[in-house]
Amino acid sequence: MTEHAIILPVLPLRGINLFPNTIMHFDVKRDKSVKALDQAMLEGQMIFLVAQKQAHVEEPGIVEDMYKDGTITKIKQLIKLPNKIVRVLVEGISRGRIVNFTDQTSYLEANIEKIELLEVPISTEEEEAMRRIAFESIHDYEKVNPNFSKETLNNIRRIKYIGEMTDNIAFNLMTSLSNKQSILGEIEVKSRFKLAISMLNAEVEIMKLKNNINNQVKQKIDQNQKEYFLREQLKVIQTELGDQQEIEDEVSEYMEAVDNLNASEEIKERLYKELKRLKRMSASSAEGSVIRSYIECILEMPWNEKTIESTDIEGARDILDEDHYGLEKVKERIIEHLAVRKIAQKTDSPIICLVGPPGTGKTSIAKSVARALNRHYARISLGGVRDEADIRGHRKTYIGAMPGRIVNALKQAKTSNPLILLDEMDKMSSDMRGNPSAALLEVLDGEQNDKFRDHYVEMNVDLSDVLFIGTANTLRTIPRPLMDRLEIIEVHSYTVNEKVHIAKSHLIKKQLDKHGLSASQLKFSDKALMEMINSYTKEAGVRNLERKIGEICRKVAKEIVIGEKKRVQITEKNIKKYLGITLFHYDKRCDEPQIGVVRGLAWTEVGGDTLSIEVNVMPGTGKFEITGQIGDVMKESARAAISYTRSISGSHNIDKVFYTNKDIHIHIPQGAVPKDGPSAGITLATAIISALSGIKVHNKVAMTGEITLRGRVLPIGGLKEKLLAAKRAGIEKVLIPIDNKRDIEKISEEILTGLTIIYVRNMDEVLKEALIKETKDASK
Fold it and tell me: Might you give the EC number(s) for this enzyme (predicted)?
């Protein structure tokens, strides 16, 4: 071996290397490398190419980042491309080795030993044998590697010298950089040949194994099932390699999460048991997916994670007053709960159910209560739920199994003591899959919900620290056993004054922010709000009122954008311009007393209303008819009123045999609106007696109450809403059952002002207050 030291520019290669007697092109962008190329072009086009040990290193160092063995190369072509990229075509000349680097700083330069090959005598027979071995190995490699072209094979066949052939084989071999580098560093021809052929044969075996795996997979599956193909391929690979590392890593992650879980030992033991089962399963096992979902569900649950409940009574009161106007009974109940919790550290959480018309703030106040108590908030909508599994969850052995809504609410809240809102409790139903209201019995029972069992979780879930608040529009459709678990708080209709306050305090600001308007650009007068409430909305709550305010905001925003106006004041006079003609009007009292016409009071889910009940008496054969889309209960009240009238006919100048020679027709206007309930009983009786006796009824009187056959007056519900309706209609005197006297104490003075409340025990007292003392002989 002879060595000649020369000084050459050095160009580090990333991920590739070059062999003598081979040609290669590549792109260069690094500044030092480009300068090394420029210097090489000035000095005979010779440059030394050496591979980096780590391809990702952007600025390789002197010794640590590069191999010592490389190739002395001649630059055949150099083309400069855009973006400072240089494309180079080079030809390997001979092997070289870095002795040391020079002090050159603008590019890499080194003293290079030119390595002469160690010539070992090879006989003609041995050379032919080596050539045949090389051709057979390359031929085998071509069969298993479709990327190896026949042109490359033919070029290798034409090479005369074994050393040059070996370098070309190594250059085209798809193996690691370190393997190629070991071939480049070998200077003895026979040793280099054996090393290259052994690597070539190893690559052939690897490619055969890879193709064999692919063939096994293709025989098992349909070509169109891509997902199944990938799973089977993974299974065969794992079988060939015996590699379960992925599952073990996954189990290790779960194990660490279980160790850090803030839960009881019973729960952790259950998770450890499931992890042992998972470890024994294949990564693509269907049951393994079920176990993973179960473990993740249990890990996500807040077993002992709690927020510190606030006991600041004044702060809670301020939050509730800030978010909602009115609803005093609800607020007082929450303040009472806080006061008890401040004294007693452990107490059963109340299960409150807010019952009232839509739009009165039942759902939104739950968020305020959660904020006042410093509890996380989660909402469960029960409207339309008909499957018991929605509450208790599915057995985890079923396909698509999942936990129930209670467990999901805990996961959503991320604490074990949240406030959970059970919305629309009156709209649950049941079918053959079970009764969800029965499943709620355990959830809402303070004596046993500390051990609530979800079918999916299959472990006790403590709900004793959860504060449940339910909402419903009516109690009629809530099963009696479920209602027994609830503390009912009625949320009544808002008065006009309350709606004005709510609009000014909350709704207007909310809609102005939503539509990008400022308070100076749009203002509402109190009279405009009252006109909006009375003529454009007919509801117990404020939902439609908010929509109407939003409608005005949109129209005002358009006027401001197109430049018509800079600011708008909504008054009673210009409100029709923005909302159009009035949509509703309330029945007013009659101008003068009439015979057979009595004003009744009714309660609906959208508030109170008045009913003008009319009775006509005509000669006939004793027929009785009632019209106006009347329900069965009201029909029964009408029959009871007829029977009572017959029993007292002698004392009110009524024909004693009117039921044989008079036809009676009762009509309740607004026939398209369904009406039902017992509270119109005394109204029907008064109208029938007035029509039969010819005595007029006071036009400023309204009444409500259920009647019995003996004329007793029984109590009714919805008194606040009925009094509001009476006040809107201009009524001055209202007759109510004496048993409802206790309800008057709960009604604000604002509603009672201007109304005279008369308590009645029986029909005699009703007729005394309602009928005018002037008679007319109706028998003539």
Answer: 3.4.21.53
- Sole residue written with tokens 């049941």: 430
Catalytic sites, residue numbers: 679, 722
User: Do the Cβ atoms of 435 and 481 come closer than 8 Å?
Assistant: no
Place of tokens 């007082």: 332
DSSP 413-465: HTSSS-EEEEE-GGG---BTTB-HHHHHHHHT-TTTGGGEE-TTT-SEE--TT
Q: In a 10 Å sphere around its CB, with 0-12 CB exposed, 13-18 middle and 19+ buried, how is residue 292 labelled?
A: middle
Rounded-to-integer distance, Cα 186 and Cα 710, Å:
122
Strand 624-627 and strand 662-667: the pairing is parallel
Cβ atoms of residues 426 and 473 within 8 Å: yes
pLDDT of 665 reads: 92
Phi, psi of 186 (to 5 degrees): -90, 120
- Using CA atoms, how far apart are residues 178 and 62, in angstroms rounded to an integer? 19
- Res. 775 pLDDT band, cuts 50 70 90: very low
Question: 557 CB contacts (<8 Å, ≥6 apart)?
Answer: 515, 516, 517
Q: Is 353 exposed, middle or buried (0-12, 13-18, 19+ CB in 10 A)?
A: buried
Confidence of residue 779 (pLDDT cuts 50, 70, 90): very low
Q: Hey, how many other C-beta atoms are within 10 angstroms of the C-beta on 124?
A: 7
- pLDDT classification of 346: cutoffs 50, 70, 90: low
Q: Which residues are annotated as a binding site for ATP?
A: 356-363
Annotated binding-site residues read: 356-363
